[in-house]
Input
Amino acid sequence: METISNSKTKVISNSAVPIKELNPQFLESTENKKHLIDYLLGVADNYLILGQRLGELCGHGPNLEPDIALTNISLDMLGQVRSFYQYIAQLKGDKTTEDDIAFLRKEREYKNVLLVEQPNTDFGYVIVRQFFFDVYNKMFLGALQQSADETLRALAFKGIKEASYHERFSGDWLKRLGDGTEESKTRVQQAVNDLWIYTDELFHTTQADDAMIAAGVAPDMLQLKEYYYEKVGDLLSVATLDIPEVEYFQKGGKEGLHSEHMGYILADMQYMQRTYPDSKW
Amino acid sequence: MIQDYIIPQDLQNILESVKDPEIPVLNVVDLGVIREVIVEGKEITIKLTPTYSGCPAMDVIGDDLERAFAAHGYSTTIQLIMSPPWTTDWITERGRKALEEYGIAAPLEETADKDVLLNDKRLVKCTNCGSQNTKLVSQFGSTACKAMFQCEDCLEPFDYFKCLK
Output
C-alpha cells in the first residue's frame, strides 16, 4: 500500500480565492523538484520527530487517559508523516521507500524545527510543546488546503480533522494546568518560558520554502504569524499564564542544525534499521 | 457515501467478508472505506480511503482483502485514495447498527459530537441500558476513532465512535 492517488481528487475550497493549479511542467525541472522535496521534509519531519517524542510516553503518561491520548496523537502524526514520505518517495522516483526516509538519514538531513525535538521534561512541557505545535499545525493545514499541489491539498484536508482534535486536547490541558494548583501553574509557566524561544522558528523559511511559496505550493505562513501569537496569547491568558518576554529566538532545525537532543532521538529511533538493515515487521 | 462501483454479487460477498480488525462486527463496505472496485478478469483493483492517517487497521484491511480475493483466485491491487477524506458519514446504516449492538455508540452529527466531547451536553446513548445520562471519560479511546464514555445510570463504561467530518 504505497500509492497516493494523484487522480480523481475532489477538492472543496474553503475560501473564495480560486486555487492556482500547478503547471504540469513544473516538476520537470530538477531544481523545482529538489525544492519541493526539501520543503516536504521540512513539513513532514516535524510530524516524525514529534510523533517519536510522544511515542516515548507510551505507558508513562501521568494517568491512563492522557497516556492514551498522547499515544493516539503520536499515531496520527506518524500516519501523516507516512503520507508525506510516500509522496517524497514517489517524487524521487528511484528505489527510495518511506522507511528509508524515516530511518536512514543523518541528523543534518532532518529538517524539523527545534520545538518538536525538545524532551518530555514533565507533563507540563509535553502539553506546552504540543499546544505550541498544534495551533501552528492547524493553521498550516488550513492554509495548505489552497496549495497548487493536488496531493498536498488532499493531505491537508485529511490532516486538519485530526489536528483539530489535537489542538482541543492540548489547549484544554494548558488551561487546566495553568489555572490549576500552584504547583501545576508554576511548572507549566516554566515550560512556557523555556519553550517560547522555539516558536518563532515555525515561521522561518528556507530557500526551498520560499521557492514553494512563490510557486503557490506552500502557504506563506509569515502572513499568519501575528494571528498565531494572538491565538496562543489568548489561550495563555485564559490559562492565567504569562507570555514570556524574550529578545532572542532559537532557530536552526529547519536548516538541519539541531539541539543535542536530536542525536539521542535518532539513536533510539534508527537503532533497529541500523543494526539489522532492511529488517521488516 | 461515495461508492463508485457495481460488481457481481459474489465479489461483493467477498468484500463484505473482510472486517475491520479492531471492530470485527463491521465489514469494510459498512465502514465506508471502499471507493471503487475495478474488475478485469481475475485482476481486481480496490480503491480504499483510509479512516485515520495512522490507523494500523488500514494495512491489515489491505492484506485481508488481498487474502480474501486470493482464496477465490483473484489477484488484488490496493490503492489508497486520500481525497476526499473519509468521514463517519460513510458508515452505513447497517454498520451503525452493528456498532451499537457490539457496544460502541455510533457517531452523532457534528454539532452534537462537539457538545459531548466537551462534556457540555449528554447526548450519547449508553449501549448497555439506553440512558442518555452518560459522561465523557476521555476524548481519546482504545483506538484513534473512539472516545471513552461512562453511563451514570447503569455505570457501564463504553466506547463512542467519534464523528469525523
About this structure: Chain B touches chain A through 32 residues (CB under 8 Å).
